[in-house]
Design a protein that fits this description.
Layout (H helix, E strand, L loop, with lengths): L5 H27 L40 H13 L4 H11 L3 H8 L8 H18 L15 H20 L4 H13 L12 H23 L19 E4 L2 E3 L9 H16 L3 H29 L8 H25 L5 H22 L5 H32 L2
Antiparallel strand pairs: 1-2
Length: 408
Amino acid sequence: MTGSDPISDAVVAGSAAGELGDAIQASRRKKRERYSVFQAPTPAGACSNCSTQLSGPVCHSCGQTADTYHRPIWDLLTDILDGLFGLEGRLWRTLPPLMFKPGKITQNYLSGVRARYVMPFRLYLTASVLFFLLVFAFDGIGGGDDTPATIDPEDVASVEANLTNLDAQLAEAGISPEQRAEIVRMTEAGIDQAQSPPDLPPEVRTMQGQVNRDEIKRSFRQALLPEDFPAETAGEDAGEDGPVVVGDGVMVDPNGLDELPLPVRRDLADRADRIIDSGGATLAAEMQRWAPTMMFCLLPLYALMLAAMHFYKKGYFFYDHLVVSLHFHAFMFFLITGLSLAAHIIPGWIAVMIGLVWSNWYLYRLHRTVYSHGRFSSILRLVALDFAYLILLSFALLGLLIVSVMTT
């Protein structure tokens, strides 16, 4: 029987077309490649890593690409950027289902569909880098108001009148002028620098800020080291001053630390002095340094909570729960980053409400898709996870504050 087999012809034709395409690509690459003193230890057509005969641009044995990378640096950078941000890149095939189809890429990845998506750990790193870059490099989230604080002249006049009345009342009580002046000075020092009259000279505002910091440091040391202030701490109200403001929104309560050894309390007092002198900048810098580590440590803990919640289900392994945790945290980082940028356009409370609703809906759909739970069961697990994670996050933030203070 003469004639050719159509299937064989198609295979041969496809092979020839593939060889021709490889030859054209190799020819183009040959023109771009430069001479290098570093030559492959294997003959041409063999993998330079494991010596396996190549049948394509990637070794089927060890997975190493056949590219020598002896090309202009901008050519290599173009390949990297195209692979990451190109329309055909994995990132753009991963983000839409990650954000709008909860559980889809997680289920696909655990089922073996992986080449088309960004690896879970790399996806988490990308999301966390974007998030912390926004929070730290651009000084926080949301549309902050940089307008200098101002006070109505009538309020300034009212404060001055109150101080005058205070001086008169102290005089009627028989307090000496020196004592009255000291009490009025301390009362004035209690006014926050940001709330000072806007027309004060810069040197006066600087001096007032230093007075405030000195008062805070003295109050903190008095509560933390009563041995150094025997006269001041002999009264009945000793150690009942409450929390002390040491920075922007950071409050520390020294009470309850008096049982620590004296050297430890002295070290804490010295660290507190450095934090207060910097206006909380050193503490904020340490918290920024340790925050990514804290979030990274939460990943396996969240996976453990998922594993404990599904201990009775067969066929689920800790690796599966860890992938769920990575995808969920990556989603949260991308969501908060996007809403933080949107907070410059929409009211902040709307952005917060969108974040709360979206994140809980995502977690609900995650249980429905990945773990195949019913509606009621998914809602119960959602509430339980929210509550447990809130407690875990509270302890993590407390640990972050302690570590930041101890490394300041």
